[in-house]
Amino acid sequence: MDFLYLYTAFQQDSIMKKQAIILFFISVFSIQFIVAQKISWVKDGLQWGHFKDTVPQNSANSSELYYFISYGNETVRYNDTLVGRVKVIAGVDCNESWVKPDMKSDQLLKYNQITFNIVEFYRRKAQYEMNRIFTVQEADSIYTETIIQCRVRIDNLRKMTAEGKNTAELHKWSNKIEIELAMYPEEEILPPIKPGLFSYGMAAGLAYGNYSGSLRDYYTGYPMFSLGFDIGIGKPVIRVIGNIGFSQLKQVLIHDGITQGKGTWVNAAIIEASIDYPLIQNSKNRLAPFFGYGVFENSFPEEDSLSSSMIDYRPVFGLVYDFRLKTSMRMAPMHNESNYRESHLTNLRVRFYMAPVDFRPDILGMSYNLSIGLSWIAGKFKVNKDLIRLENSGYRFDIE
Length: 400
Known about the structure:
Distance between the termini: 85 Å
Helix content: 25-40%
Shape: rod-shaped
Number of domains: 3
Number of strands: 16
Radius of gyration: 35 Å
CATH topology of the largest domain: Porin
Strand order of the largest sheet: 6-7-8-11-13-14-15-16
Number of helices: 5
Structural class: alpha+beta
């Protein structure tokens, strides 16, 4: 009896688990099905098959198109740029839209399509204005105004066309909304922008240098770590860069009365400040010659480091090449800073420069240096606020 009870309970438990699994899959597919019934605007794309809800009892309307407009933050790739922006979306919920089967006609479908066109028009208009807001606070007011205007227009359409029964008025509205739709781009990711004057950033990388002349007779080549900072003023860029590495003596060196043996490790350091101007500058490449001034120091590991250091101050000149790896732009305004947006660049940077170094009359020559690394540049830009105003376009906003 106990065994039979346990077996029956096991069977019931297994059946309940199977039912739970089946219900889970039904729920998942149902959710996917429901989500799939929200459609975006397509020119003349509305069909009666999109009206899936049951007709409410005692409704005097022939059909009901359930639309929505909303907005939120999104990051989208535009060409090779990641753009963070305020995205406005709109569409129709098919599961909430309905039509009386005996009232279906081409004219009623056209009436609903015009309603959808109005929704799409206000989505485009809102997106256009969201791309040009001066402050974050403007987003809410634009959205609220969009909803109100859209409802008023759709209500006017309903009244003036007698819910699509007035063929002449329906034709006027169709032509009018087609014109208005053409006034705004269907999808505008980046509006016209104006780069700011200033930019700033940093760079880090590995470098290798070598000497010519009698310097080469005394010192080996020297690997270095490089760290620098950029300040851009329009096209020119000012840089301050520090390099530190090590070298070795190839032969005995007597300096300031101290004898350094062959193979002695030498600390090599270069600090430079320079300014460049690009010969080539586009969305992917920047090539610029630069000129500046540098401090070159080779020091020996002694307690009295000052007496065992060689220092020279010399002009430096060379080329810097940046290859754009990544670009990101934030279209939402920065905090409460009016009309300013942020941009961030990640570049592969290659620098080659040289300088005549004269540590002593018998130890001199050219210093040649090559570095490869990454740079990160931030800047600000403005959006041209060239808003389209229907009331100023010479076209009547509403049909009377």
